[in-house]
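Help wanted!
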Amino acid sequence: MNLRRLWAIARKEALHIRRDPRSLGLAIGIPMLMLLMFGYALTLDVDRVPLVVWDQSGTVASRDYIAQFTGSRYFQFVRAVANYRDLERAIDLRDAEIALVIPPDFASRIESAQTAPVQAVIDGSDSNTAAIVLGYTQAVTATYNQRIAVDQIRRAAGGLPAPALDLRPRVWFNEDLKSRNFIIPGLIAVIMGLIAALLTSLTVAREWERGTMEQLISTPVRAPEIILGKLAPYFVIGMVDVLIAVLMAVYLFDVPLLGSVPLLFAMAALFIIGTLAQGILISTLARQQLLASQIAMVSTFLPAFLLSGFMFAIPNMPTAVQVITYIVPARYFVALVKGIYQRGVGLETLWLDAVFLSVFSTVVAAAAIAKFRKRLE
Amino acid sequence: MHAPPPAGDAIVEVQGLEKHFGPFKAVAGISFSVRRGEIFGFLGPNGAGKSTTIRMLCGLLAPSAGSGRVAGLDIVRDTERIKTRIGYMSQKFSLYDELTVEENIDFYSGIYRLPRAKKAERKGWVLAMAGLQAHRTALTATLSGGWKQRLALGCAVLHEPPILFLDEPTSGVDPISRRQFWDLIYTLSERGVTVFVTTHYMEESEYCDRLGVIYRGELIALGTPRELKTRHMPEAVLEVDCARPNDAMGVLERLPGVKEVALFGKGLHAVAADADAAGREIRDALAAGGFRLDRMERITPTLEDVFVSLIEARENANGSPREGHR
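Answered by r_m:
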């Protein structure tokens, strides 16, 4: 391998990029756009659940119970309804995801230490959200129950017994339980995988289509010089993309970066080299730009999105699918990014993922070089 | 006319070279050699196997059978070393359109690893040779066809290879640029560079020192343009200017003394073993058919006559049906 020839290829490739500002704009713009879109749209948090109430009791007690809901940030009071028809309408129109029906004898039953039934109608069309809303509702009701019980005991016994258990939860790593903190770091990994492979998937195929490759392979240039030379300028773009994504995550989405920044960028470099090489490998084999870009898109985005553990936890997948995830390079990068970002851990914990990622990048780069033939057939 | 170089050692030597693409034999066993310093032309219609042969010589295609040497190196085993000693210009323009003239030259001097001092000198030479000094910062896409061709030639000889392979270098270029391009080929040839050029232009093949005529993957004639016209063309050629040449062709074809007839310019070229006898037959037949005869004379055969005659002979020898007259 000769560095002068590698440099000549890299320089030429950089000139191509510079002469095509639209592609360069896309290479920088698309990751930002995707991060914005997914960052804001892809939220698993359920809060400010719209709530309608049919308060048939209309007493201090019933209003107190309703205030437990409307006072929390998890529910948002929409309006009061006065019959089942309006209640159904509110849910059908998706004005409300939950409706509370408080019976007329609510206050009197509580007063007489009887159990008061309260109806909650929940829109179950989104099962995940519905389960969370149900959990909130039960929690609010349990708290209210406890308060009434405490009142009743205090009145009866004139004192307060100590509770048997007192749970003091402490959530680590994502103390606010914000799903954004969980999604954004993985999202960076997914977007970089897609963009990197797309960037390079055109480079070799374009030269075959335009005929410039025939001239190039009639010279003493060698396969590693072509492949690595083409990779170099896109590596710079890829790292700029990572930098922008990390800055957006920290300053726009307020996702704290707990771990080592140099380690994060070193791992990103490793991943980008592997994925850029994957794009070049696809381009080398396909020899057609359209085909190459489509293969690049399908082979990076889908596995990265579904099988990397970025959103869907790998241990929850069927065993067969779990096995497949081991050949998805994004899996290792997602694990690394999340570990560094959220848990602030280093290579002492993440070394295995780093090793697998290195193996992937090396193998793919070697395959791209090996599959590049200086022949016309 | 370019003076033929003294007979010397062979820089290209090929024996029984074949290339198959599936059942199709693009090159069906050809043997020839090219002497150092000569301009060797490969003449043949499209699809005859010219490009396939040149690509095998340049190490871009592996031969299916046969052997060959280029600049002393084996075309099967030493392809990568061959690439350091040749210049190649493919049929399609293959420099980078989005790069400037200078950037294309710089790119190929990097690929050929020219030493720094040499680099500037060669760049100056290419720019002067192609007449592109005033356009060094122009995007290659904006250049005219002739300029592009000269730039491509310049990039192919940056490393001063002893042999240059040009695959239909002047196709799609206007006649003046084509002439200028051939002046450059002569200049290179005078410096001792061997030039191997394919073409389907008859007048271009006249510029070559030696010609190989290739047809359907086979080499059907080899020699200087003069040799081809005399040795490969024992018959006489009569140029016939008459009214309605298209219809007259049908009449002449049926004459026993006329071997073949082809449209040529506004008139006809009739090939005959005995020029005088055939001349009388033609005169009578045209008069009988009511065709006005303006002029008829025996001419030195052009390379096109030779070419047509060679191909007809080959077709007849193979016994395959003729595709119809032109």
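OP: Thanks! One thing I noticed: The two ends of chain A are 24 Å apart (CA to CA).
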